[in-house]
Specification:
single chain; alpha+beta; 3 domains; 2 strands; 12% strand; flat
């Protein structure tokens, strides 16, 4: 049973927790978020130490076309006043590179043959010769310019 549905049914955190199979404090947290007008199922992200520097990281990744190393970005951030760990920088750079790569993927276009320029083929089972199965393969090419 869903958390909010169980609370609406019972109007009691303890009973709703028993029905939904979770802690009554969890029920209370979800109900408070819903009553405040927020989406109770969206988790809020805690602020990170690197958040003020994310724009600079994204700029460096964009300028380098996604090939800049995280240790080099960390050196620049230290000069700018970042007091965090290199691991924090590596994680943020990895996220920025993944976002950059998602927007710069190779675009695949379907093959559209030119009119009159194509190869057609077919295959199938042929006649039995001497009791043995044979396969037929046939291919033909049509080219307007070649005169075939």
């Amino acid at each position: 049973m869903e958390i909010l549905e169980s609370y609406d049914l019972t109007r009691c955190y303890w009973s709703a927790g028993h029905l939904a199979g979770c802690d009554p404090k969890t029920i209370a947290r979800y109900v408070e978020r819903r009553d405040a007008g927020a989406d109770p199922y969206l988790r809020s992200r805690r602020p990170r130490l690197i958040d003020p520097f994310l724009e600079k990281i994204e700029e460096l990744v964009e300028r380098s076309n996604g090939v800049v190393r995280a240790d080099k970005i960390h050196e620049r951030l230290l000069v700018m006043g970042f007091g965090g760990d290199e691991r924090t920088t590596r994680r943020a750079v990895a996220e920025a590179k993944a976002t950059w790569a998602a927007g710069h993927r190779r675009r695949y276009r379907p093959w559209v043959p030119e009119p009159g320029m194509w190869l057609q083929f077919d295959w199938g089972e042929g006649p039995r010769i001497g009791g043995r199965r044979t396969n037929l393969f046939c291919a033909w090419w049509r080219g307007v310019a070649s005169g075939w």
